[in-house]
Amino acid sequence: MREFRPTRFEILPTIIKNLIIINALMFLAQNTFAGPTSSFSVEDYFALHAWQSKLFQPWQMITHMFLHGDFGHILGNMFALWMFGSVLENVWGPKRFLLFYILCGVGASVLHLLILSYEFVPMASDLMQLSQMSVSGSSDFNQAVLAYSKAHNIQLTRILSENNVSLATPGIRTEIMELLTNNYNKTLNTATLGASGAVFGIIMAFVYLFPNTYIYIYFFFPIKAKWLGILYFSYELFFAVRNTAGDNVARWAHVGGAIVGFVLVYLWSKKERNNRWN
To answer: What is the pTM of this model?
Structure first.
């Protein structure tokens, strides 16, 4: 079990520095082209979208890592990238570190897309069934709508109440189907962005290589890296499985990045140990 002791440590190595610069430039571009008057959306083109979305493009599995939602988002990710990534780049060198970073980010996006597909397939099927029930005038439509809304975290009862209507209002079925379809399309086209998946891979690699290094929470409270890694991963996994309504954090991307990071550093370390003994 090792503790990190820097020797000839470069505080801002090449890849870390360039990643921070690229992320900052992309964040500037996001804000430059933001707003309803802009003819180009950086998020639509470069952020990650579900495979079923018309906005999905293969390159988004990489480019989403260089976009962020707000200043706090980019600040947190870039600080963690520098704090843990600088150590890894100094240990591995720039080429291996960059490969590791990209693979963790892509791995995070793959797991995230798989989970989205798992969620969207039944959602699309249920919506199609509701549409058929609406057209046929099925007496079970109201009950099916309530079940669909509950299953997919849609506050339909509140929406109807705010508009002073109910499921018994004549002609309401068409409006309800339009509401649910718009909700589905909005959810389908919601973008995922941020370097968090790749950063979680970096944190996991640091924890594996230097488990007994002390990390100071808020610069005052020391905790060994291995315990911080276990707690942080457990926290993300718990909320990913729980899938809390209103949680707009891509928890499965975090989990995916951590898993890929752990597998890569484990395999690389095992290969290096075998080479030393051969």
So the answer is: 0.85
